[in-house]
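In response to a reviewer's request, we include the raw inputs and outputs for one of the modeled complexes. The two entities were modeled together in a single run.
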Amino acid sequence: MAEITMKNIVKRDDDGFLAVDNVNLDVADGEFMILVGPSGCGKSTLLRMIVGLEDITGGDMLIGGTRVNDKAPRDRKLAMVFQNYALYPHLSVFENIAFPLRLHGKMSDEEIRTRVQEAAQTLELTEHLDRKPSQLSGGQRQRVAMGRAIVRNADAFLFDEPLSNLDAKLRGQMRGEILRLQRRLGVTTVYVTHDQTEAMTLGDRVAVLRRGVLQQVASPRELYEQPVNLFVAGFIGSPPMNFVPAQLENGALRLPFADVPVPDGLQAAFTDRDVLIAGIRPGSFEDASLVDPSKIDKGVTFDVTVDVIEWLGNEQYAFVPYEAPDDITATLNELQADLDSEQMRLQMTVSLDPLSRISDGETVTLWLDTSRIHLFDPKTGENLTRVATATVN
Amino acid sequence: MKTSRWWTVAGIVIVLYSLFPLVWMLSLSMKPPSDIVSRQPQFLPTSWSFDNFREVFSQSLFTRALINSIGIALISTVIAVIVAMFAAYAIARLDFRGKRLLLSLALGIAMFPQAALVGPLFNMWRGLGIYDTWLGLIIPYLTFALPLSIWTMSAFFRQIPWEMEQAAQVDGATAWQAFRKVIVPLAAPGVFTTAILTFFFCWNDFLFAISLTSTDAARTVPAALAFFQGASQFESPVPYIMAASVVVTIPVVILVLIFQRRIVAGLTSGAVKG
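The model returned the following structure tokens for the whole complex.
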């Protein structure tokens, strides 16, 4: 059991590339911390610096209050689960799990057997103990890797994208297993993933990284509802948040499809710029004909032409094209590149009630909950609505 | 279908072509010496006999040579494999200055024409007093076997995922423990292949064996073959030489047949990754 403290951690690669830039992060004892971000954001590098497989260029890494910068991995008392599991193919499952215990050399065979059995029971591996890793399925291998981690009472668990090699169904199950295990053992855990579903469901807190810089550390709910900037807003949430240009005209916010009232306290934000980026979650829209009449006044209604409809049974998405000025488009394209995706065309995703009977190409009346609009500075990407709420509070 | 039949025919022709000398060798080794000088030569012996083998094994020229061959080849192989294992691990895993230079140097040595070395070595070895000794053969064998061993084995080491070793380190292993308990067992097929290839190289060598030896003390079988004589001046030594050749070929053929797959895997992995 230990807390992990990172103070001004910097990692500069041999070729001068700044992989991790001045990260400050505290992982409390027993906390489940997620490191998330698109590929190449430095999340794995950060994890490998915690465990000692990567040298730390600058800053202090403290585990349980002791500085470990110069300690070898074997002296840090951490357990790690690798992306490809890194099981020893020449050893049986039993010996794989017993490997860390045998290295210490002070434990009797009897004790090792008891502890391996115990770990195997926890992970339901008892009947596979004599088999070789190559005879196991992906999920079983994953569990063996976890068995090797839990068998030795490590101070903290580190996971490096442990589920990315599993198929979707198994991934869901294993996610639940990992969460249950962590809750039961109460061990400090740092978990790296690029999958935001894993980040949202597993983490007590989630740290979002972009190009080696820590963007926001917060609970999943706060990340979703109060993202600090465009990047976090675009990264968290599926389907992702829509970004549209917002112009101040005659005291109202002009979006490409409707005018909405300017949120309180944000008039000042427009004094030095004329166009902002409005971020609207797909779920903030609704088919106007299905909105409860008492609620309809809390938002605005407007007509748009739907390009394509995607009906998935339990949800339904409509895609609505829109226009934007060039500089906003440039900002959005850059953001998409950062997020590992490509903006093919400017279109909004609107989540609709699956009961709604809209078809492709139809003009429909949509309702938008104006209280859930975020406004971002197009230059810095900063979330202005978050600042506003913070000052109001 | 038609093309595949042609491939089969072509394959059979090639196999027959390359098998012919071997079968001829086998046939000669079974022939009585009189067959060799007869006026009507024929492919198969007139009467099959193992007398030639018996005769060969009764000569100390051959038995001594066989002991020398086995001893020198085994010692060279063991040393080459151990040294190459550490060298290859360092090349595959560690970043150090001059790594490329070392690798190209090793390759350069492997390419060096051996015949050009024989003369100088002969003089040096006499000066050093290791002419016609086991050591005198083991040293040049190591020189030429090591580069190949290092290249093959570093290809094998490179195939072992880095994570294996890192996992071992996180699990609490020292670098040496990780090497011994994880890397070496995983590289075992590579070590094995390298050992066999090195053994063949030493076993088959003729050039050094004939030039750097003069007596039974260190002469190996390929060199000794040239010294066989017939029972009398008028009898051909060919059947004896062939019998001895068959004896030294058999272990090679058996080894290849048993470890065929591993050798092929070893050679191709070296070709692709090396």
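As requested, we also summarize the result in words. The longest strand of chain A covers residues 18-27. The domain at 4-228 of chain A is CATH 3.40.50.300 (Rossmann fold).
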